Protein backbone atom coordinates (compact mmCIF):
# COMPACT_ATOMS: atom_id res chain seq x y z
CA UNK A 1 0.00 0.00 0.00
CA UNK A 2 1.61 3.25 -1.13
CA UNK A 3 2.17 5.98 1.41
CA UNK A 4 -0.08 8.43 -0.41
CA UNK A 5 -2.93 5.91 -0.39
CA UNK A 6 -3.35 5.78 3.36
CA UNK A 7 -3.70 8.25 6.20
CA UNK A 8 -1.44 8.40 9.24
CA UNK A 9 -1.94 5.29 11.33
CA UNK A 10 -3.69 5.73 14.69
CA UNK A 11 -1.88 4.83 17.89
CA UNK A 12 -3.01 4.20 21.43
CA UNK A 13 -4.93 6.58 23.64
CA UNK A 14 -3.65 8.26 26.78
CA UNK A 15 -6.23 10.12 28.85
CA UNK A 16 -9.10 12.30 27.63
CA UNK A 17 -7.03 14.45 25.28
CA UNK A 18 -5.29 11.34 23.99
CA UNK A 19 -8.67 9.68 23.36
CA UNK A 20 -9.87 12.66 21.32
CA UNK A 21 -6.64 12.69 19.35
CA UNK A 22 -6.87 8.95 18.72
CA UNK A 23 -10.45 9.29 17.50
CA UNK A 24 -9.40 12.00 15.03
CA UNK A 25 -6.43 9.92 13.82
CA UNK A 26 -8.68 6.87 13.49
CA UNK A 27 -11.28 8.78 11.51
CA UNK A 28 -8.52 10.02 9.24
CA UNK A 29 -7.33 6.43 8.71
CA UNK A 30 -10.79 5.28 7.58
CA UNK A 31 -11.77 8.46 5.70
CA UNK A 32 -12.93 8.39 2.06
CA UNK A 33 -9.97 8.23 -0.30
CA UNK A 34 -7.92 5.87 1.91
CA UNK A 35 -7.27 2.27 0.94
CA UNK A 36 -8.74 1.08 4.25
CA UNK A 37 -12.04 2.87 3.62
CA UNK A 38 -12.11 1.42 0.11
CA UNK A 39 -11.69 -2.05 1.57
CA UNK A 40 -14.40 -1.50 4.21
CA UNK A 41 -16.87 -0.32 1.58
CA UNK A 42 -16.06 -3.36 -0.56
CA UNK A 43 -16.88 -5.56 2.45
CA UNK A 44 -20.17 -3.71 2.94
CA UNK A 45 -21.12 -3.94 -0.74
CA UNK A 46 -20.25 -7.64 -0.71
CA UNK A 47 -22.91 -8.17 1.97
CA UNK A 48 -20.46 -9.66 4.46
CA UNK A 49 -19.39 -8.53 7.93
CA UNK A 50 -16.01 -7.82 9.38
CA UNK A 51 -14.08 -7.19 12.59
CA UNK A 52 -10.73 -5.46 12.11
CA UNK A 53 -8.24 -4.39 14.78
CA UNK A 54 -6.17 -1.40 13.60
CA UNK A 55 -2.89 -2.21 15.31
CA UNK A 56 -0.99 -5.02 16.93
CA UNK A 57 1.13 -5.63 20.01
CA UNK A 58 1.66 -8.38 22.58
CA UNK A 59 -1.75 -7.76 24.17
CA UNK A 60 -3.51 -8.22 20.82
CA UNK A 61 -1.50 -11.37 20.11
CA UNK A 62 -2.51 -12.98 23.40
CA UNK A 63 -6.18 -12.21 22.68
CA UNK A 64 -6.15 -14.04 19.33
CA UNK A 65 -7.06 -17.70 18.97
CA UNK A 66 -7.17 -19.74 15.76
CA UNK A 67 -7.01 -18.21 12.31
CA UNK A 68 -4.02 -17.73 10.05
CA UNK A 69 -0.78 -15.78 10.34
CA UNK A 70 -0.36 -13.93 7.04
CA UNK A 71 1.94 -10.90 7.30
CA UNK A 72 1.10 -9.70 3.76
CA UNK A 73 0.82 -6.23 2.29
CA UNK A 74 -2.55 -4.56 2.85
CA UNK A 75 -4.83 -4.04 -0.14
CA UNK A 76 -8.54 -3.28 -0.27
CA UNK A 77 -9.29 -6.41 -2.30
CA UNK A 78 -7.42 -8.66 0.15
CA UNK A 79 -9.39 -7.19 3.03
CA UNK A 80 -12.61 -7.86 1.15
CA UNK A 81 -11.71 -11.50 0.44
CA UNK A 82 -10.41 -12.22 3.96
CA UNK A 83 -13.57 -10.84 5.53
CA UNK A 84 -15.43 -13.72 3.90
CA UNK A 85 -13.78 -15.94 6.51
CA UNK A 86 -15.61 -16.44 9.77
CA UNK A 87 -13.23 -14.49 11.98
CA UNK A 88 -11.50 -11.21 12.69
CA UNK A 89 -8.54 -9.51 11.06
CA UNK A 90 -5.49 -7.84 12.63
CA UNK A 91 -3.62 -5.09 10.79
CA UNK A 92 -0.13 -3.83 11.60
CA UNK A 93 0.10 -0.64 13.66
CA UNK A 94 0.99 1.40 10.55
CA UNK A 95 -1.88 -0.25 8.61
CA UNK A 96 0.53 -1.38 5.89
CA UNK A 97 0.12 -5.14 6.44
CA UNK A 98 -2.52 -7.73 7.20
CA UNK A 99 -1.00 -9.79 10.01
CA UNK A 100 -3.78 -12.25 10.87
CA UNK A 101 -7.11 -13.36 9.43
CA UNK A 102 -9.89 -15.72 10.51
CA UNK A 103 -9.05 -14.93 14.14
CA UNK A 104 -11.36 -15.37 17.11
CA UNK A 105 -10.86 -12.56 19.62
CA UNK A 106 -11.28 -13.45 23.30
CA UNK A 107 -11.42 -10.16 25.27
CA UNK A 108 -12.00 -9.88 29.00
CA UNK A 109 -15.70 -10.66 29.50
CA UNK A 110 -15.85 -8.42 32.59
CA UNK A 111 -15.24 -5.28 30.52
CA UNK A 112 -18.57 -3.39 30.51
CA UNK A 113 -20.28 -2.74 27.18
CA UNK A 114 -23.70 -1.53 26.10
CA UNK A 115 -23.49 -3.26 22.72
CA UNK A 116 -25.82 -6.19 22.06
CA UNK A 117 -24.66 -7.92 18.87
CA UNK A 118 -21.81 -10.40 19.21
CA UNK A 119 -19.53 -8.64 16.72
CA UNK A 120 -20.17 -5.14 18.11
CA UNK A 121 -19.82 -6.31 21.72
CA UNK A 122 -16.49 -7.94 20.89
CA UNK A 123 -15.29 -4.85 19.00
CA UNK A 124 -16.11 -2.58 21.95
CA UNK A 125 -14.37 -4.81 24.48
CA UNK A 126 -11.30 -5.40 22.32
CA UNK A 127 -10.90 -1.66 21.74
CA UNK A 128 -11.13 -0.91 25.46
CA UNK A 129 -8.73 -3.69 26.42
CA UNK A 130 -5.95 -3.24 23.84
CA UNK A 131 -6.21 0.52 23.26
CA UNK A 132 -6.22 0.21 19.47
CA UNK A 133 -9.17 1.30 17.29
CA UNK A 134 -11.44 -1.52 16.11
CA UNK A 135 -13.73 -1.44 13.08
CA UNK A 136 -16.92 -3.50 12.94
CA UNK A 137 -18.77 -3.97 9.65
CA UNK A 138 -22.36 -5.06 10.25
CA UNK A 139 -23.88 -7.25 7.55
CA UNK A 140 -27.45 -6.99 8.87
CA UNK A 141 -27.47 -3.27 9.75
CA UNK A 142 -25.43 -2.23 6.69
CA UNK A 143 -23.12 0.07 8.62
CA UNK A 144 -19.47 0.52 9.55
CA UNK A 145 -18.78 1.37 13.20
CA UNK A 146 -15.49 2.59 14.66
CA UNK A 147 -14.69 1.84 18.31
CA UNK A 148 -12.06 3.99 19.99
CA UNK A 149 -11.35 3.91 23.73
CA UNK A 150 -14.98 3.50 24.76
CA UNK A 151 -16.35 5.76 22.03
CA UNK A 152 -18.43 4.51 19.10
CA UNK A 153 -18.66 6.39 15.80
CA UNK A 154 -20.73 5.21 12.84
CA UNK A 155 -19.05 6.06 9.53
CA UNK A 156 -21.54 7.91 7.37
CA UNK A 157 -21.79 8.55 3.67
CA UNK A 158 -19.93 11.66 2.48
CA UNK A 159 -23.13 13.32 1.28
CA UNK A 160 -24.70 13.22 4.76
CA UNK A 161 -21.53 14.58 6.39
CA UNK A 162 -21.22 17.34 3.76
CA UNK A 163 -24.80 18.42 4.39
CA UNK A 164 -24.14 18.94 8.11
CA UNK A 165 -20.74 20.49 7.41
CA UNK A 166 -22.26 23.09 5.06
CA UNK A 167 -24.83 24.03 7.71
CA UNK A 168 -22.03 24.46 10.24
CA UNK A 169 -20.06 26.51 7.71
CA UNK A 170 -23.01 28.87 7.19
CA UNK A 171 -23.28 29.27 10.98
CA UNK A 172 -19.55 29.97 11.19
CA UNK A 173 -19.86 32.71 8.56
CA UNK A 174 -22.58 34.46 10.61
CA UNK A 175 -20.57 34.17 13.82
CA UNK A 176 -17.46 35.49 12.06
CA UNK A 177 -19.38 38.54 10.81
CA UNK A 178 -20.56 39.24 14.34
CA UNK A 179 -17.02 38.78 15.64
CA UNK A 180 -15.72 41.33 13.14
CA UNK A 181 -18.38 43.80 14.32
CA UNK A 182 -17.59 43.52 18.04
CA UNK A 183 -13.83 43.54 17.34
CA UNK A 184 -14.24 46.76 15.35
CA UNK A 185 -16.25 48.30 18.18
CA UNK A 186 -13.55 47.30 20.67
CA UNK A 187 -10.88 49.01 18.55
CA UNK A 188 -12.86 52.25 18.51
CA UNK A 189 -13.44 52.07 22.27
CA UNK A 190 -9.73 51.45 22.82
CA UNK A 191 -8.86 54.62 20.92
CA UNK A 192 -11.29 56.61 23.06
CA UNK A 193 -10.23 54.81 26.28
CA UNK A 194 -13.83 53.75 26.98
CA UNK A 195 -13.39 49.98 27.20
CA UNK A 196 -15.19 47.99 29.91
CA UNK A 197 -14.84 44.38 31.00
CA UNK A 198 -18.14 43.73 29.19
CA UNK A 199 -16.64 44.83 25.85
CA UNK A 200 -13.59 42.62 26.29
CA UNK A 201 -15.71 39.66 27.38
CA UNK A 202 -17.98 40.09 24.36
CA UNK A 203 -15.02 39.86 21.96
CA UNK A 204 -13.55 36.86 23.81
CA UNK A 205 -16.98 35.23 23.80
CA UNK A 206 -17.27 35.55 20.00
CA UNK A 207 -13.72 34.37 19.45
CA UNK A 208 -14.37 31.21 21.48
CA UNK A 209 -17.70 30.54 19.73
CA UNK A 210 -16.01 30.82 16.34
CA UNK A 211 -13.32 28.38 17.51
CA UNK A 212 -15.92 25.89 18.78
CA UNK A 213 -17.73 25.84 15.44
CA UNK A 214 -14.44 25.70 13.54
CA UNK A 215 -13.37 22.66 15.59
CA UNK A 216 -16.64 20.93 14.74
CA UNK A 217 -16.08 21.59 11.04
CA UNK A 218 -12.49 20.37 11.35
CA UNK A 219 -13.90 17.02 12.55
CA UNK A 220 -16.05 16.87 9.42
CA UNK A 221 -12.98 17.60 7.29
CA UNK A 222 -11.19 14.62 8.88
CA UNK A 223 -14.20 12.33 8.34
CA UNK A 224 -14.56 13.40 4.72
CA UNK A 225 -10.96 12.67 3.79
CA UNK A 226 -10.34 13.56 0.14
CA UNK A 227 -13.97 14.70 -0.17
CA UNK A 228 -13.33 17.47 2.36
CA UNK A 229 -10.63 19.42 0.53
CA UNK A 230 -12.89 22.29 -0.55
CA UNK A 231 -14.42 22.45 2.92
CA UNK A 232 -10.93 22.66 4.44
CA UNK A 233 -10.04 25.62 2.21
CA UNK A 234 -13.23 27.47 3.15
CA UNK A 235 -12.62 26.81 6.84
CA UNK A 236 -9.02 28.03 6.65
CA UNK A 237 -10.10 31.26 4.97
CA UNK A 238 -12.86 31.96 7.49
CA UNK A 239 -10.78 31.46 10.64
CA UNK A 240 -7.59 33.12 9.40
CA UNK A 241 -6.36 35.46 12.13
CA UNK A 242 -8.71 34.18 14.84
CA UNK A 243 -6.03 32.47 16.95
CA UNK A 244 -3.61 35.45 16.91
CA UNK A 245 -6.48 37.84 17.71
CA UNK A 246 -7.52 35.64 20.63
CA UNK A 247 -4.05 35.74 22.17
CA UNK A 248 -3.66 39.48 21.59
CA UNK A 249 -6.95 40.27 23.35
CA UNK A 250 -5.88 38.24 26.38
CA UNK A 251 -2.41 39.81 26.42
CA UNK A 252 -4.01 43.26 26.33
CA UNK A 253 -6.52 42.69 29.09
CA UNK A 254 -5.46 39.92 31.46
CA UNK A 255 -5.51 41.65 34.88
CA UNK A 256 -2.29 42.63 36.57
CA UNK A 257 -1.34 40.10 39.28
CA UNK A 258 -2.37 40.98 42.82
CA UNK A 259 -1.84 39.41 46.23
CA UNK A 260 -5.23 37.66 46.00
CA UNK A 261 -5.21 36.52 42.40
CA UNK A 262 -2.97 36.28 39.39
CA UNK A 263 -3.47 34.70 35.99
CA UNK A 264 -0.95 34.40 33.20
CA UNK A 265 -1.85 34.73 29.52
CA UNK A 266 -1.48 30.97 29.02
CA UNK A 267 -3.69 30.23 32.00
CA UNK A 268 -6.40 32.59 30.75
CA UNK A 269 -6.28 31.03 27.28
CA UNK A 270 -6.55 27.57 28.84
CA UNK A 271 -9.56 28.64 30.96
CA UNK A 272 -11.30 30.07 27.90
CA UNK A 273 -10.62 26.86 26.00
CA UNK A 274 -12.38 24.84 28.73
CA UNK A 275 -15.66 26.77 28.48
CA UNK A 276 -18.59 24.90 26.97
CA UNK A 277 -21.01 26.50 24.54
CA UNK A 278 -23.56 27.01 27.33
CA UNK A 279 -20.94 28.66 29.58
CA UNK A 280 -19.88 30.98 26.76
CA UNK A 281 -23.39 32.45 26.68
CA UNK A 282 -22.75 33.96 30.13
CA UNK A 283 -20.49 37.04 29.94
CA UNK A 284 -19.64 36.90 33.69
CA UNK A 285 -18.29 33.37 33.13
CA UNK A 286 -16.13 34.58 30.26
CA UNK A 287 -14.89 37.50 32.39
CA UNK A 288 -14.00 35.07 35.16
CA UNK A 289 -11.99 32.95 32.71
CA UNK A 290 -10.04 36.07 31.75
CA UNK A 291 -9.16 36.63 35.40
CA UNK A 292 -11.79 39.17 36.50
CA UNK A 293 -14.14 38.59 39.48
CA UNK A 294 -17.02 37.85 37.11
CA UNK A 295 -19.82 39.57 39.05
CA UNK A 296 -22.41 41.59 37.06
CA UNK A 297 -21.01 44.80 38.56
CA UNK A 298 -17.51 43.96 37.32
CA UNK A 299 -18.71 43.88 33.71
CA UNK A 300 -19.15 47.65 33.72
CA UNK A 301 -15.71 48.34 35.20
CA UNK A 302 -13.35 50.34 33.00
CA UNK A 303 -10.19 48.66 31.70
CA UNK A 304 -7.37 49.92 29.52
CA UNK A 305 -5.53 47.90 26.87
CA UNK A 306 -1.78 47.49 26.94
CA UNK A 307 -1.58 48.03 23.17
CA UNK A 308 -0.55 44.62 21.80
CA UNK A 309 -3.64 44.26 19.65
CA UNK A 310 -3.48 47.59 17.83
CA UNK A 311 0.30 47.51 17.45
CA UNK A 312 -0.06 44.11 15.75
CA UNK A 313 -2.12 45.85 13.06
CA UNK A 314 0.78 48.17 12.17
CA UNK A 315 2.41 46.74 9.01
CA UNK A 316 5.87 45.13 9.22
CA UNK A 317 6.25 45.63 12.97
CA UNK A 318 8.13 42.68 14.55
CA UNK A 319 6.74 41.05 17.68
CA UNK A 320 9.92 41.82 19.65
CA UNK A 321 9.52 45.56 18.93
CA UNK A 322 5.84 45.40 19.94
CA UNK A 323 6.83 43.87 23.27
CA UNK A 324 9.43 46.59 23.89
CA UNK A 325 7.00 49.39 23.01
CA UNK A 326 4.35 48.04 25.38
CA UNK A 327 6.87 47.50 28.15
CA UNK A 328 8.29 51.01 27.72
CA UNK A 329 5.01 52.97 27.50
CA UNK A 330 2.83 50.70 29.63
CA UNK A 331 -0.48 51.27 27.83
CA UNK A 332 -2.19 52.15 24.57
CA UNK A 333 -3.11 55.71 25.52
CA UNK A 334 0.53 56.60 26.18
CA UNK A 335 1.49 54.98 22.89
CA UNK A 336 -1.12 57.04 21.04
CA UNK A 337 0.19 60.21 22.68
CA UNK A 338 3.85 59.40 21.99
CA UNK A 339 5.72 61.49 19.42
CA UNK A 340 8.24 60.18 16.91
CA UNK A 341 11.03 61.30 19.24
CA UNK A 342 9.41 59.49 22.17
CA UNK A 343 9.13 56.29 20.16
CA UNK A 344 12.80 56.44 19.20
CA UNK A 345 13.83 56.11 22.83
CA UNK A 346 12.80 52.44 22.66
CA UNK A 347 15.62 50.03 21.86
CA UNK A 348 15.47 48.91 18.22
CA UNK A 349 13.16 51.72 17.07
CA UNK A 350 14.90 54.08 14.66
CA UNK A 351 13.46 57.17 13.04
CA UNK A 352 11.93 55.31 10.08
CA UNK A 353 10.27 52.70 12.28
CA UNK A 354 9.12 55.35 14.76
CA UNK A 355 7.40 57.25 11.92
CA UNK A 356 5.84 54.01 10.68
CA UNK A 357 4.43 53.28 14.14
CA UNK A 358 3.22 56.83 14.63
CA UNK A 359 1.49 56.95 11.21
CA UNK A 360 0.13 53.42 11.58
CA UNK A 361 -1.50 54.14 14.93
CA UNK A 362 -2.91 57.42 13.63
CA UNK A 363 -4.49 55.69 10.63
CA UNK A 364 -5.92 52.96 12.85
CA UNK A 365 -7.37 55.55 15.23
CA UNK A 366 -8.93 57.50 12.39
CA UNK A 367 -10.42 54.49 10.63
CA UNK A 368 -11.77 52.99 13.88
CA UNK A 369 -13.55 56.18 14.84
CA UNK A 370 -14.96 56.62 11.33
CA UNK A 371 -16.28 53.04 11.24
CA UNK A 372 -18.06 53.54 14.54
CA UNK A 373 -19.67 56.90 13.96
CA UNK A 374 -20.13 57.19 10.19
Total domain count: 3
Q: Which percent bin holds the helix content?
A: 55-70%
Give the second-level CATH assignment, the architecture of the largest domain.
3-Layer(aba) Sandwich
- Give the SSE string: HHEHEEHEEHEEEHHHHHHHHHHHH
CATH superfamily of the largest domain: DNA integrity scanning protein, DisA, N-terminal domain
Strand percentage lies at 5-15%
> At the third CATH level, what is the topology name of the largest domain?
YojJ-like (1
Number of strands: 8
- How would you characterize the largest beta sheet? 8 strands, mixed
> How would you classify the helix and strand content by structural class?
alpha+beta
Straight-line N-to-C gap? 61 Å
CATH uppermost class of the largest domain: Alpha Beta
Number of helices: 17
Question: Averaged pLDDT, please?
Answer: 90
Alpha-carbon Rg, integer? 27 Å
Please render the helix and strand layout as text:
Layout: H1 15-29, H2 35-45, E1 50-54, H3 58-63, E2 64-65, E3 68-73, H4 76-82, E4 88-91, E5 97-105, H5 118-130, E6 134-138, E7 143-148, E8 151-155, H6 158-192, H7 197-224, H8 229-238, H9 242-253, H10 265-274, H11 277-280, H12 283-290, H13 308-311, H14 319-329, H15 332-337, H16 340-344, H17 351-373
Parallel strand pairs: 1-4
Antiparallel strand pairs: 1-6, 2-5, 3-5, 4-5, 6-7, 7-8
